[in-house]
Design a protein that fits this description.
Blueprint lengths: L4 E10 L2 E11 L4 E5 L6 H9 L6 E6 L2 E2 L5 H7 L1 E4 L11 H8 L7 H14 L1 H5 L10 H13 L5 E5 L7 H16 L3 E5 L3 H7 L2 E6 L2 E7 H5 L2 H7 L4
Parallel strand pairs: 3-8, 3-9, 6-7, 7-8
Antiparallel strand pairs: 1-2, 1-4, 4-5, 9-10
Helix pairs in contact: 3-6
The structure holds adenosine-5'-triphosphate (ATP).
Protein name: Amino acid/amide ABC transporter ATP-binding protein 2 (HAAT family)
Keywords: Amino-acid transport, ATP-binding, Cell membrane, Membrane, Nucleotide-binding, Transport
GO molecular function: ATP binding; ATP hydrolysis activity; branched-chain amino acid transmembrane transporter activity
Length: 239
């Protein structure tokens, strides 16, 4: 089976400094892959480059069999790649509803289809329905993450990339968000997850990759990584 995403020998540099140094991995359709690793390992750089925000110095990014490594962000969005960045980048002075509607802008949708997707978003996180007319910049951190995730899903991406969705959130909300990410997998969506919260991320993932110094140090099925001594000591608190 060909993978949905196949990254081959990807290098990304900021000037002379190479932050991603020869990364290769793949993700099958319907899987959740986690990228874990220490601060500064290159996780955010890797996602930004997969989305087309940073041009690669070299390497291949094959999405659904086509090399997209030189395509711009819009072209990648159209093909079904979507990134929720760490800062969540909502439109603060717009309402929850308007943020959701903007998430669907890539595809020109009929009103009925737009309504259907809004209903789905509200069913997923009822708290967003209660706050649909509230400005995004007045939401709590957890609600903002729910909105960022829901906004990304409005375009029905094929591959959703999430940069640190649990950052700064209370443990209960982290569970709620990661559980919802697990549900998305059962709906057939493919997810690439970057997380500091390695244990919680691996729990909802099919496979994991440890990124250290811009290179993949360990790769394997998520269950295997959770039980790997090196991973446990470095990233799972040794427990
Ligand atoms: P964290 O978990 O702390 O967010 P990360 O694994 O996501 O870290 P990156 O943010 O991708 O790591 O950073 C990888 C390396 O690239 C770091 O050494 C960082 O200092 C460097 N870097 C990131 N952004 C830039 C930039 N705009 N210009 C120069 N160097 C950068």
């Amino acid at each position: 089976m060909t993978a949905l995403l196949e990254v081959h020998d990807l290098h990304v540099a900021y000037g002379q400094v190479e932050a991603v140094r020869g990364v290769s991995f793949s993700l099958q359709e319907g899987h959740i892959g986690s990228i874990i690793g220490p601060n500064g390992a290159g996780k955010t750089t890797l996602l930004a480059s997969l989305m087309g925000l940073l041009p690669p110095a070299r390497g291949k990014v094959c999405f659904d069999g086509v090399d997209v490594a030189r395509l711009d962000v819009e072209a990648r969005l159209e093909r079904g790649l979507c990134l929720v960045p760490e800062q969540r980048e909502l439109f603060g002075d717009m309402t929850v509803l308007d943020n959701l509607v903007l998430g669907a802008y890539v595809k020109k949708l009929a009103t009925a289809e737009l309504r259907l997707r809004l209903d789905e978003a509200y069913a997923r996180f009822p708290r967003l329905a209660e706050r649909r007319d509230q400005r995004a910049d007045t939401l709590s951190g957890g609600e903002r993450q729910m909105l960022a995730l829901s906004r990304a899903l409005m375009s029905r991406p094929r591959l959703l990339m999430l940069d640190e969705p649990s950052l700064g959130l209370a443990p209960l909300i982290v569970t709620e968000i990661l559980t919802e990410i697990g549900h998305l997998r059962s709906m057939g969506l493919s997810v690439l997850l970057v997380e500091q919260n390695a244990r919680a991320a691996l729990k909802v993932s099919s496979e994991g990759h440890v990124l250290e110094g811009g290179q993949i140090a360990i790769s394997g099925p998520a269950e295997q990584l959770i039980n790997d001594d090196r991973v446990r000591h470095a990233y799972l608190g040794g427990a």
